[in-house]
Amino acid sequence: MSATAGVFSPAAVECADLPDLLGAVARLSQRDVAALSARDAEGYVLACDRLRSALDARRAVAMDTLAAHLDEDLQRRAHDQRRGGVPAHPGPELHGFVASMLAPGLHCSTRTVQRRLEADRRLVCTTASTHQALWDGDLDLPRADAVAEAARSVDPDLWARFEALVLETTVDEVTGEITLVSDEVRRMSRSAFARRAARIARTLDPASQCRAAKQARDQRRVVIRPDRHQPGMAVWTAHLPTDVSQQMAAAVDALAGSYAKANPGTSIDSRRADALTALVLGNAEVKTVVELLIPVLPTPDQATRTRGALGQLNPVTATLTDGPVPEGTIPEGTTSDGAARHDTVAWVIPGQVDDPRHGALAPDVIAQLLADPDVILRLARLDPDGSITQDPTAYRPSGSTRRRVRARDGSCRFPGCHTPAARTDTDHVTAHPHGYYCRSGPPPTAAPSPPTPARTTCATT
């Protein structure tokens, strides 16, 4: 008889105390887990899932505690500054500041951490019963989030009643024992549970539906990110009103159907993607701008012709040749048919280029992009010492400097943070004294010192 027999049966896992369950899970080695019977392996999976839910609840409390302490510190610091006669400068937004602290250790972007922090604080502060069920391992995090999300539009005075209805909370009339989550609710799937929470919110507070719909429309957005599993692909996620989504889907399906009839044997999903692309690009005047950060200009002639104010370079055209040149090379003075040109620049693409927003670009794709006559190249100068030209009279980097710094850095410069540079701020490595360039204050007695090199960062320095 195995020592784990009965310990990890699904029925035993469901009613086990969390400390005992944690000890039983932690005591087994990888070899022990591999030797479990099918029934015990099923129970072990359920035990790990229940423990993960309990740890999620504890993490939510810890994140709320951290944010509360930092909020107190920031308010106390601002109060001390006002009392001492020092102008209180607006500090970073609280959740963004906490996220920038946690992102390196959690190895994810600050935006991801900030979304989780906001959801955790909403769960802890808004839906106490749901959080308690998560703490006890009776609900998993996605279902707990569904309750907290549905409660956002419900009147605060109805939160306790709303939770009791969603979780089917009951009180034993004899013993007074409270059952937070009924057995039926615990067995409910995530999608069914989310629909249940939304339906109860509409029934309990009819006006909540209008508030939720308006709030959702105000938050419509399109999110673009690289496809981590398919190089050269990007993932688009659109949050749109239902009526707009229906109209778009009908248009995409109709065009995809005509594509599929013309090309039998192809995937309908691929044709939908082609149809969406055609509808978007065919109904908009799109001008593609490719920004290149270069260490030096190809020739003094071109430097003279292309240089603009403050080191910015004017757009030039690049084309591709089929001649015997290195892969990804666009030689100077030639076109795709080998003809001579006077407005071209030679580019060598050494390998795959990672776009932090859209994913990987292969050398041949980049070469085709640069050879497209409708593509505009924006050249940004990188000085030989690695610095970027800045206006010495300005405190904040200009728009052109911000673009060049983000192109240079690629992502946030904070150690361990991989937030794409497009979603970061740009500030100086060494902060300028507060108020030095304040227009409302007295003028400086000496000429302002040149700004220090700029960098991309998730938190305001």
Features:
461 residues, mainly alpha, two-stranded antiparallel ribbon, two-stranded antiparallel sheet, 10% strand
Structure description:
The structure is a single chain. With 461 residues, this protein is mainly alpha-helical. It is 48% helix and 10% strand. The protein contains 17 helices and twelve strands. The protein has a two-stranded antiparallel sheet with strand order 1-2. A hairpin with a 7-residue loop joins strand 3 and strand 4 (234-239). Helix 5 (94-106) packs across helix 6.
Strand percentage lies at 5-15%
Spatial sequence of strands, sheet with the most strands: 1-2
- The overall pLDDT, averaged over residues, is 75
The description of the largest β-sheet is: 2 strands, antiparallel
Q: Can you give me a brief rundown of this structure?
A:
The chain is mostly helical. 48% of the residues lie in helices and 10% in strands.
What does the secondary structure layout of this molecule look like, with pairings?
Elements: H1 10-15, H2 18-27, H3 30-34, H4 38-83, H5 94-106, H6 110-126, H7 128-135, H8 141-151, H9 159-167, E1 170-171, E2 178-179, H10 183-186, H11 190-204, H12 207-218, E3 221-226, E4 234-239, H13 242-262, H14 268-282, E5 289-294, H15 300-306, E6 329-330, E7 347-348, E8 353-355, E9 359-361, H16 363-371, E10 376-381, H17 399-409, E11 425-428, E12 454-457
Parallel strand pairs: 5-10
Antiparallel strand pairs: 1-2, 3-4, 6-7, 8-9, 11-12
Helix pairs in contact: 2-4, 4-6, 4-7, 5-6, 6-8, 7-8, 8-11, 13-14
